[in-house]
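Run folding on both entries below.
>entry_1
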Amino acid sequence: MTDTVQQRRGVPVLVCAAEGPPIVTTQDALDVIGATYGVADVVAIPARRLGDAFFQLRTGVAGEIMQKFVNYSIRLAVVGDIAERVEASTALRDLVRESNRGRHIWFVTDLDELDTHL
């Protein structure tokens, strides 16, 4: 499967393929952001493509990547079951909770849950 643009609740969403290249640096994030111009307002990235460092908040990787999406006004949805990671980290649990209250970055289990944020 390749990345596809889907209309979800009237919003164009770039749904990244689960088998795609890892997104582990800010340049990787910028490459994805670049693919959205003119075609999507939201990017849905499978959690497994983000690498372990993203979920280990002390590395700063999550903050750097998420900030790029905010700076370029592209909403980000991290899609997948990250329950084990959340249970293991109070900081990650807090980040997920606060992000899901906002309008720019969401952590969702599937695309149907993303629809509730759109």
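>entry_2
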Amino acid sequence: MDKDGVSIPDEEWERFLRDAGVAAPDAPKEPSARARAVTRRLREQPAQPVGWRTHQPVRRRRGKGWYVAGLLVAAVLLVVALAPGRVAGWFGGGGGDNRPLAAESVRPDEPPPTEAAVRRPTLDQPFRGSPAARWGDGTAGIYMPPARATGWMSEEQVARTLDRSLDFLVASSLDPGVLRGERPKRAIAMINPRQRGMKDYLATAFSAPSRENDPLTLFSRFDRTDVRLVGDVVKTRGRLTYREGERGAVEVTADVTYVYPVVRAAEKSDEVARTIVRRETVMSWDDPAKVNIEPNTFSLLSDRVDSTNGGCFDHTGYFRPEFGTARADSGSGEGHAVDPYERTTTMDERMKGASEDKCGKATRS
């Protein structure tokens, strides 16, 4: 296009170049009139800002280096696909990945990765710096298996039994009133009152708690005059499993880890501590035709608990979390070291290392 805005035909432009002796055999071809006009227009336009979602491909360079780099990238992608948890650990526990974890349908084969630099929890982010940040809220973190006919129950009955078992976990370990120290009446009503020794155990556990009669093996309770929970979310990770038990009973095992963020009860307290509780409860939903049992109740076969920052040998019927220096001192106990977020071992294996006369040492909070 000339200065008057008249476009020069391509044939005339090429003839001009030949006459001027400019077009060497290996010289790049001059763009057409349309291309020259577009180029000129683009040059005259100001640079446009890059959009935040705009992808600009990198200009490639040829050479063997890019071939090798491509092989390395492919290898890394393969490792990520096969072992995402391990790769996250290379970069400090995947601190930037806040996506919720899939439900724990089977026992994991490795513990959650540890963050390279521990980030302290806050009132707005009480699970910050913890694997629990990606765990489910309340019952959302507890895996429910599909129902199938088992023992004396049909598939539909097993489904209802699993729901009732989950209801007991809510009433015993997630109910806001119970967490504030109230008596877990709804949960207690689900335990067979005709089971030998159960009535005496429950009465003693709340009136005179001790190592032998400790309500914390079944229920999560905090003294409201001592601490208060941060927010209304308790993080959980675990699952229910079931099998046929004695006399055709449906035996349900709940293995769940609960994470409770708390602060001191005093107003304007802002130091957040976490009490982490792994609890295993085995419930036998018996056939009323074979076992003396109240309808819609279960017989308690076993109950075990392992807690971190809940008080060491302090049998008051409440978890007693510690803060600041006191928590640091209790974290250096002489007992076995335990990762409270680790779920690769069974409760049997976890409790083997526990000492009856020494406080354990948590590797993280």
